[in-house]
Amino acid sequence: QVRLVESGGGLVQAGGSLRLSCAASGLTFSSYTMGWFRQAPGKEREFVCAISWSGGLTMYGDSVRGRFTISRDNAKNTVYLQMNGLKPEDTAVYYCGAERPKSSSTWSVIAEYDYWGQGTQVTVSS
Questions:
Q1: Average pLDDT of 35-58?
Q2: In sequence order, what E strands does the chain have?
Q3: What CA–CA distance (Å, rounded) separates 16 from 121?
Q4: 50: number of CA atoms within 13 Å, CB side?
Q5: Rounded Cα gap, residues 54 and 9, in angstroms
Q6: How far is CA 82 from CA 1, 5, 16, 20, in A?
Q7: Is pLDDT at 72 greater than 90 in this prediction?
Q8: What is the pLDDT of residues 87-113, one digit of tens each?
Q9: Distance CA 69, CA 83 (A)
Q10: Which pLDDT value is given to residue 104?
Q11: CA distance 92 to 68
């Protein structure tokens, strides 16, 4: 049974930082692309960032590039999201996803992901 468990969310003031973690089990973690998405109230889930199976390639959404950093530790089956310079508009539930690499992968499309975590709430106050 595959499980992705996010943690590290919370309440932070604008300009602050948080580090999210996503611990994976039940899959060969090092074979999967890992992504972070977020969903704000009343909005669709949107792509935040993703990282290749090896950690050698990353991709970021325009709204977070330069502020957020994705990384992974394949020995710990965990992917991280370091969020700096947080803004109120970053407030959302953050989800991690695991995608079995495909030749047509774009990394930013929800439907490409095979597994999802339950999400962790991030709230940024102004």
A1: 97
A2: 3-7, 10-13, 18-25, 33-39, 46-51, 58-60, 68-73, 78-83, 92-99, 115-116, 120-125
A3: 15
A4: 22
A5: 25
A6: 27, 16, 11, 6
A7: yes
A8: 999 999 999 999 998 888 999 999 999
A9: 7
A10: 86
A11: 14
